[in-house]
């Protein structure tokens, strides 16, 4: 009878050993993940590149331009924060579009992003984000039909605004509106960044839409698979929270969604954007308050999602695209980000495993507000100025 008992004992011991090995392996994976999350790259001290590998061609000038979007025929839509929308040719000829909603223009507020609908070919619909005129000064998202022949917007309708049902806590006042619009690669979902409007605690209030990334259907309805879809109100549209001033949101070729946001005094962030995650503002930051008081660093609160990289000193990131064109084939898959404070164009490369690093920083001599890729693969930039130029970048000829 002793032999079966010993066999069972050996089997039990082996199972226990396997469980121990599995536990060690799992602990190692978690340790590696925690180590990676606890040590994002600080790219703030990176110097400018000594040479610029592109030629810069000024094409047109605008009054505080904010965003640009290409039409299929190669023309562009350009917004001015002052409240104007233009159709612009590649040669710089401008035509102003009528029917743009009234905006509150001051500081960071005004007419913001413009994006073509995924169904543009069928319905000629565009989307605009802006800070509404009037005492509320709410961030709003509207869609309208662009009548190119009549140079006007038709049937404009607000599909979302920051203050639903008169809830004044979630409305306007202050800068940092966010306002970046992007669609999922399949065109089914619209994402909108909503800043904290300089009221930091709103970013952690689940019942307010400020300091959040929102996800909705193109008509503004709530997707049933949103993290808190069943809870209603602002929670239903919330995709992630804990953001300060997000001015860049774009999908990488591998399907990952990336977001950058401005920090306070230090701590601009590039985040891998994931459903239901809390990115920590204003509880944690790699920057400090403007009055010099410190903010706890992200590793002190492991419940929050860490940035993949950050910038201290800040670059003040604005606009972001992932490049896929033919004119600069060596940069396919890279992200290009404008730098307001840095007055730079920044290139970020990705390792395909959720990691990223800044590879280039080119001194543009002006605050760069927006970046776009043209149909031929040229890079297009907008300067942030009352005489902001539209620039076309092409490879420098030796």
From TrEMBL:
The keyword Signal applies. InterPro entries: 6-blade_b-propeller_TolB-like, Glc/Sorbosone_DH, Quinoprot_gluc/sorb_DH_b-prop. PANTHER family: ALDOSE SUGAR DEHYDROGENASE YLII, HEDGEHOG-INTERACTING PROTEIN. This is Dehydrogenase. Keywords: Signal. Pfam families: GSDH (PF07995). Gene3D superfamilies: TolB, C-terminal domain (2.120.10.30). Residues 1-37 form the signal peptide. Residues 62-392 form the Glucose/Sorbosone dehydrogenase domain.
């Amino acid at each position: 009878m002793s032999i079966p008992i010993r066999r069972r004992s050996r089997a039990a011991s082996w199972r226990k050993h396997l469980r121990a090995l599995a536990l060690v392996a799992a602990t190692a994976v978690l340790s590696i993940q925690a180590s990676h999350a606890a040590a994002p790259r600080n790219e703030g001290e990176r110097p400018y590149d000594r040479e610029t590998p592109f030629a810069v061609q000024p094409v047109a000038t605008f009054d505080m331009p904010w965003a640009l979007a290409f039409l299929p025929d190669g023309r562009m839509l350009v917004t001015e924060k002052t409240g104007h929308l233009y159709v612009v040719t590649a040669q710089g000829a401008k035509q102003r579009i009528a029917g743009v909603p009234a905006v509150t223009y001051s500081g960071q507020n005004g007419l913001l992003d413009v994006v073509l609908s995924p169904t543009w070919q069928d319905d000629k619909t565009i989307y605009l984000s802006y800070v509404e005129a009037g005492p509320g000064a709410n961030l709003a998202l509207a869609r309208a039909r662009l009548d190119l022949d009549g140079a006007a917007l038709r049937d404009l309708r607000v599909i979302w605004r920051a203050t639903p049902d008169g809830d004044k806590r979630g409305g306007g006042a202050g800068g940092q509106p966010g306002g970046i619009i992007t669609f999922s690669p399949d065109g089914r979902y619209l994402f909108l960044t909503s800043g904290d409007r300089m009221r930091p605690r709103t970013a952690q209030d689940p019942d307010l839409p400020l300091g959040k990334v929102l996800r909705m259907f193109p008509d503004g309805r709530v997707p049933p698979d949103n993290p808190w879809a069943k809870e209603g109100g602002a929670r239903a549209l919330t995709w992630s929270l804990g953001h300060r001033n997000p001015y860049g949101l774009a999908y990488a070729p591998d399907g990952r969604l990336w977001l950058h946001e401005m920090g306070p005094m230090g701590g601009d962030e590039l985040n891998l954007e994931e459903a239901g995650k809390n990115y920590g503002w204003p509880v944690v930051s790699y920057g400090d308050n403007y009055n010099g008081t410190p903010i706890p660093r992200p590793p002190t609160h492991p419940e929050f999602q860490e940035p993949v990289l950050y910038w201290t000193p800040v670059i003040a990131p604005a606009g972001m695209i992932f490049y896929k064109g033919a004119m600069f084939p060596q940069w396919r898959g890279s992200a290009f980000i404008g730098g307001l404070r840095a007055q730079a164009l920044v290139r970020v490369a990705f390792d395909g495993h959720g990691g990223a690093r800044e590879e280039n920083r080119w001194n543009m001599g002006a605050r760069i507000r927006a970046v776009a890729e043209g149909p031929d693969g040229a890079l297009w930039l907008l300067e942030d100025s009352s005489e902001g130029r539209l620039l076309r970048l092409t490879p420098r000829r030796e």
